[in-house]
Specification:
- The termini are far apart.
- The longest helix is centred in the N-terminal third of the chain and has 21 residues, at 41-61.
- A hairpin with a 6-residue loop joins strand 1 and strand 2 (128-132).
- The chain has helices at 4-19, 31-38, 41-61, 66-81, 101-111, 134-137, 149-158, 178-184, 187-197, 199-208, 236-242, 251-263, 276-280, 296-308, 367-383, 386-402; strands at 116-121, 128-132, 168-171, 174-176, 266-268, 286-289, 323-330, 337-345, 352-360.
- By secondary structure, it is an alpha+beta fold.
- Residues 1-85 and 394-403 have low confidence and may be disordered.
- The protein contains 16 helices and nine strands.
- The strands form three sheets. A five-stranded antiparallel beta sheet has the order 2-1-9-8-7, sandwiched between helices. Strands 3-4 form a two-stranded antiparallel sheet. A two-stranded antiparallel ribbon has the order 5-6.
Length: 403
């Protein structure tokens, strides 16, 4: 049963919100007479006072003070606005002996007790640097939500269905180009692109970029996810192109996909060395080279916009600019909600790819919240001079090769 004190004070908040609604939302139907009276400025000031007075009186009658009631409501609201509900220890079953200790600790701290997973990898070699919550990362996969959109954008650009400047109608007197559609993760835009491409071409590019296949090399726990061989029954290719309907995607596959976009078209096998010998013998393994470099500036502009002012703006770090894509949806197969964020940094010389996945039952589980976790990781890496050290290492390597 809900706390009676909380409900009473919350009702005052509801009245306050009601009084601030725009007239055009209330002027029709039975609410117009109410608004006609309550819209009076004097009444707006008086009603909340009466509401709080009566709430306090009832609260004292039930053995509590109005002040306690207000504090209780404020505390509840604070918990909801803080993000994802507590889950426990997502690292409890991990074997992280050979993970990068710096990156792992920062990722563990950023994820906290959320029901989620973080994967970090090097896009220049395919090496997995850490996986937090390995059980989730090595599962059979999840609906990709809007993280499927870079695949659709790349297919549309390659097939000439769109250019960066193609304007599509996404609402009444509202049009978007590719950059804005990526930034704001507009479903209508990508549904239209997917419809124009048709299922065979959508399937072709999804498979080309590694969906429905294992992304790793000799990673025994990895599963291949699912890429449907026919349009999904619910929503067809349009929903497949906006939410990834029918697809089951793993964090490893998503990391591989965005790593390929980050480094200019080289798709590496992901490797996760977890013994001393494996670490000593590590060598990058190229899976394939994709001729997509001419298309990438148009795609990256949208991923940059997503972080700068779009759905992933909570990950923004002015010193180490990341590019990324969020994804939010209900998981129709497993239940609950999913929040994805995949990104890479830095922009010019990519050093790291991050995949953040969170699961939960409330609306706080979302791509923007996943991007917030990634933002904490980027801030932590910057504070530890991770990007500066990597640049120095790269400069030394280049200088040595030129001698």
């Amino acid at each position: 049963m809900p706390n009676r004190k909380t409900v009473r004070v919350s009702s005052c908040v509801v009245v306050r919100q009601f009084l601030t609604l725009k007239v055009d939302r209330l002027k029709w139907g039975i609410f117009w007479p109410i608004w006609d009276v309550m819209g009076n400025p004097a009444v707006k000031q008086v009603v909340p006072i009466f509401c709080l007075f009566f709430a306090g009186a009832f609260a004292m009658a039930s053995g509590a003070t109005p002040a306690t009631s207000v504090r209780t409501t404020s505390h509840t609201h604070h918990k909801r606005s803080s993000g994802i509900s507590a889950y426990g220890d997502p690292t409890k079953d991990d074997n992280a002996t050979f993970d990068d200790p710096v990156i792992r600790q920062i990722a563990v701290n950023a994820l906290g007790h959320a029901n989620g997973s973080v994967l970090a990898m090097d896009p220049t070699t395919g090496r997995i640097l850490t996986i937090v919550n390995q059980k989730m990362a090595f599962s059979a996969g999840f609906e990709p939500c809007s993280t499927i959109k870079p695949v659709i954008a790349l297919a549309g650009l390659q097939e000439g269905v769109i250019t960066r400047d193609t304007m599509m109608k996404v609402g009444h007197r509202r049009y978007m180009d590719l950059t804005e559609a990526m930034a704001h993760s507009n479903n209508v835009y990508f549904e239209e692109v997917g419809t124009r491409l048709g299922f065979p071409r959508v399937h072709k590019y999804a498979h080309l970029l590694g969906l429905g296949q294992k992304a790793g090399y000799n990673i025994e726990e990895e599963q291949a996810g699912t890429l449907p061989s026919a349009p999904p029954a619910y929503g067809g290719v349009a929903r497949m192109s906006s939410f990834g309907e029918g697809i089951r995607l793993t964090p490893l596959q998503l990391a591989s996909l965005v790593s390929t976009l980050a480094n200019g078209g080289t798709q590496y096998y992901l490797q996760y060395p977890r013994t001393e010998q494996a670490r000593a013998d590590f060598q990058p393994r190229v899976r394939q080279e994709l001729d997509i470099a001419p298309l990438l500036p148009d795609l990256r502009e949208g991923m940059l916009a997503a972080v700068t002012y779009g759905t992933a703006k909570q990950s923004y770090d002015p010193d180490e600019q990341a590019l990324g894509k969020t994804g939010t949806c209900n998981d129709e197969s497993l239940g609950g909600r999913l929040g994805w964020f995949v990104s890479y940094a830095d922009e010019v010389h990519p050093k790291i790819v991050l995949v953040v996945l969170i699961r939960g039952g409330g609306r706080a589980t979302s791509g923007p919240h996943a991007s917030e976790i990634a933002g904490r990781i980027y801030h932590g890496l910057r504070d530890r001079n991770y990007f500066a050290d990597s640049r120095r290492t790269r400069e030394v390597t280049v200088a040595g090769a030129s001698q």
